[in-house]
Amino acid sequence: MKKICICTTIASTLKSFVVETAKYLHNECGYDVTLICSPDEAFAKSLPEYLHFIPVDMPRGAKLSGFKSIKVFRKIFREQKFDLVQYSTPNAACYASIAAKKEKVPIRLYCQWGIRYVGLSGVSRKIFKIIEKLVCKNSTHIHAVSQKNMAFAIGEGLYKAKKASVVGNGGTIGVDMTQYDVNNKSEWRTATREQYGLSQSDFVYGFVGRISKDKGCEELLNAFFEVSRKHENARLLIVGPFENDCGIAADVLEKAKKNEKIVFTGRVDGADMKKYYSAIDVLVHPTYREGFGMVIQEAGAMAVPTITTNIPGASEVMEDGVSCLLVEPRSTEQLAEQMSEVILSDELIKALGAQAYERTKTLYNRPVMLEFQRKDYEKLLGGDKE
Predict the structure, then answer these.
(1) Which CATH class is domain 182-363?
(2) What value, to the nearest 5°, has the Cα angle with vertex 318 and ends 313 and 321?
(3) Distance (Å, rounded) from C-alpha 211 to C-alpha 247?
(4) Cα separations in angstroms, 252 against 53, 258, 260, 369
(5) pTM of whole model > 0.85?
């Protein structure tokens, strides 16, 4: 039986992007799977008995206590003798990659779901780029989250092309379309709009994610201010928590919080997100950096189109002018133009939404994504089963 270990810094990442893969690999391939992240008792209790869990304290940020984490990882890898160790997210990837190389784990897989330093500047950018290069150097294989992210990384000198690949069409585990059932969209749309005081005749722009500057939220708010002056029925539903020190100009935030056309929901349980996508007419996702845009896939599962930015990851999920609309990052003017275009054309929204649904069903449906991953693990571990 092949033994594999998958590491991320916090439990929510494992829960969102790894657990379903781990279950599939155990059930379909018979792998013995261990998950590692920072201590989280609730997460540990949520796992089936056949998935092992080992907590490791992992300080976030550049701290000397990280050396202790590396020491703990080395002890685990030495004792468990895994055939493959996979790691993602900056801190877990740094600590686990160093430990796995020191302990001579034969397959050291870095799932590069995003490149953290892209959204940084100055000293922070330099430090995180050094860490990224170190992780890539320590790894025997790299899975980039998308073709453009891989091309960017190769161009940045993070690794050679022969070391990297993209699994399937990109992304991670896709969308469970049995849960994101478009047949329930009308019911969920009505209920969610009523919950937040939105009428059925309102045109609702939606944002999903952490509220921060690097997610393009300042441009989104300024664009909405402009659009809503011209269109009385425009509304903005912002789903997600504020990031600490979000970086958005204080006057813009204050204006948004006082605007009766803008609704802030705060953090929402992931199981309910399908209802929020159902309530919006178009997802607006003006991010500066992105792995592959899970929210774009989720919106697509509910036949909701997206306006997003022309950057690696975000621009690859859907097709510009077919199932999404692209704008340049940091451009409030372009964003406002596209937001104005969709509010004026119900036909455009329906056409884009229908294509977004078809693309999601074909490329990002969870069974499709899990099978791509199964084949890739079999190939890496020397037991390719086509």
Answers:
(1) alpha beta
(2) 120
(3) 9
(4) 44, 10, 14, 40
(5) yes
pLDDT tens, N- to C-terminus, the chain (386 residues): 999 999 999 999 999 999 999 999 999 999 999 999 999 999 999 999 999 999 999 977 666 778 999 999 999 999 999 999 999 999 999 999 999 999 999 999 999 998 988 878 899 899 899 999 999 999 999 999 999 999 999 999 999 999 999 999 999 999 999 999 999 999 999 999 999 999 999 999 999 999 999 999 999 999 999 999 999 999 999 999 998 889 999 999 999 999 999 999 999 999 999 999 999 999 999 999 888 999 999 999 999 999 999 999 999 999 999 999 999 999 999 999 999 999 999 999 999 999 999 999 999 999 999 999 999 999 999 854 44
- The three-class DSSP label of residue 296 is helix
Q: Of the candidates 44, 52, 104, 33, which has an alpha carbon nearest to the alpha carbon of residue 74?
A: 104
The CATH code belonging to domain 3-174+366-380 is 3.40.50.2000
